[in-house]
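queue> pop job 88
queue> type: inverse folding (structure -> sequence)
queue> payload:
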């Protein structure tokens, strides 16, 4: 591995979203010379979502920096044991340990968003006024767009995602902590990031800092990518 080889950036989205939620940070990272791809998974099954992350890893070069937002923190934790993954970045995310589910973590610090969710036809739909708690620091127009395009998960998705591995125990990790988050409680973010031993960067943001504070998110990813690149070069 030459020092010139920049890590591939692989993004993993959360619920009520898809890969386009990273649209404000992807172009700049591509301009930096990174290969970038956002995984598009179904939110139907945790096992299938993780399998899609692994399929995506098969389509890109390595080393890989995995970046997960919200529920995506669980998918990058499960897929991060892959040898091609050299580091992990969590954005306002959950990070279960072995035997934990996402629901186990959310139950520790309940948040406001779930008062604005309706379960229908087996899926968890965000109500129109849920954007206040999901992305309340975006403009009214952007909030309407987020709601119009939101992608509901299976209602039992969080209960089914048991983690069998914890790569954050052995691989460098970064955590972007959203202090004004009403979806993944900031106290939960503090708890999981401390347990991980991650490098923590706090940002005054709603649950979607990659949309409301993209410059902060890009800066963290760039620093993480540089660290990963140097680590790989040193071990070559």
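queue> result:
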């Amino acid at each position: 591995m030459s020092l010139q080889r920049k890590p591939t950036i692989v993004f993993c989205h959360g619920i009520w979203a898809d890969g386009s939620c990273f649209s404000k940070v992807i172009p700049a990272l591509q301009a930096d010379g990174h290969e970038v791809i956002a995984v598009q998974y179904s939110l139907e099954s945790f096992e299938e979502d993780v399998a899609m992350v692994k399929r995506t890893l098969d389509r890109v070069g390595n080393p890989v920096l995995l970046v997960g937002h919200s529920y995506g923190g669980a998918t990058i934790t499960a897929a991060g044991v892959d040898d091609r993954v050299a580091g992990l970045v969590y954005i306002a995310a959950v990070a279960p340990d072995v035997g934990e589910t996402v629901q186990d973590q959310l139950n520790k610090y309940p948040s406001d968003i779930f008062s604005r969710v309706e379960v229908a036809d087996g899926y968890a739909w965000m109500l129109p006024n849920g954007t206040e708690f999901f992305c309340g620091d975006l403009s009214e127009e952007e909030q309407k767009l987020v709601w119009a395009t939101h992608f509901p998960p299976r209602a039992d998705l969080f209960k089914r995602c048991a983690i069998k591995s914890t790569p954050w125990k052995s691989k460098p990790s970064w955590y972007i902590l959203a202090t004004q988050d009403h979806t993944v409680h900031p106290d939960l973010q503090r708890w999981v990031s401390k347990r991980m031993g991650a490098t923590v960067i706090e940002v005054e943001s709603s649950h979607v800092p990659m949309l409301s504070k993209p410059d902060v998110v890009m800066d963290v990813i760039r620093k993480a990518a540089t660290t990963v690149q140097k680590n790989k070069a040193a071990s070559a």
